[in-house]
Design a protein that fits this description.
About 35% of the residues lie in helices and about 25% in strands.
């Protein structure tokens, strides 16, 4: 099993992250999908980097970015005022799937959420991602809520 290093992303990682996000037919079919780095994606990266409640992570192996996800902290009044962590846009490069990379990344984010004082880790996943659903359940997530989205 390969052992990647997980670290916060830098602006130099943005092209690799965009490539990982685009290596997915569901994502490519979405409105607004961009296959290249654009001024908008660079601006979004700068916003994430500047926001103390957002972290963009990458997994690196042999100098190559092979995984990514965004961790967002959400302070709230429910659950006794504890923070929750939201995982978004988790991707592992196709060449490294089913090799334990996703599990290692998820375990690292569970520990990161604990370190940041979160009492809950949550995510949404497209209903068509059946393999991802099995992975998340295996990682201890419970399909307890129905997620909904609305364009604005």
């Amino acid at each position: 099993m390969p052992t990647p290093t997980f670290r916060l992303a830098t602006d130099k990682d943005v092209p690799a992250i965009i490539a990982l996000l685009g290596d997915d037919e569901i994502a490519r079919a979405r409105e607004g999908f961009q296959a290249e780095v654009t001024p908008q994606t660079l601006e979004a990266f700068k916003e994430i980097e500047a926001d103390k409640n957002n972290e963009l992570w990458v997994g690196e192996l042999d100098g190559k970015v092979i995984a990514t996800l965004q961790l967002t902290l959400i302070p709230g009044l429910s659950r006794g005022g504890s923070k929750r962590a939201l995982l978004e846009a988790m991707r592992v490069h196709a060449d490294h799937r089913s090799q334990g990379v996703g599990e290692q990344l998820m375990n690292a984010m569970v520990e990161r959420a604990k370190t940041l004082g979160c009492g809950l880790l949550q995510l949404t996943t497209d209903t068509r991602r059946l393999a991802a659903h099995r992975f998340y359940v295996r990682m201890g997530f419970e399909p307890s809520h129905v997620g909904m989205k609305r364009k604005v």
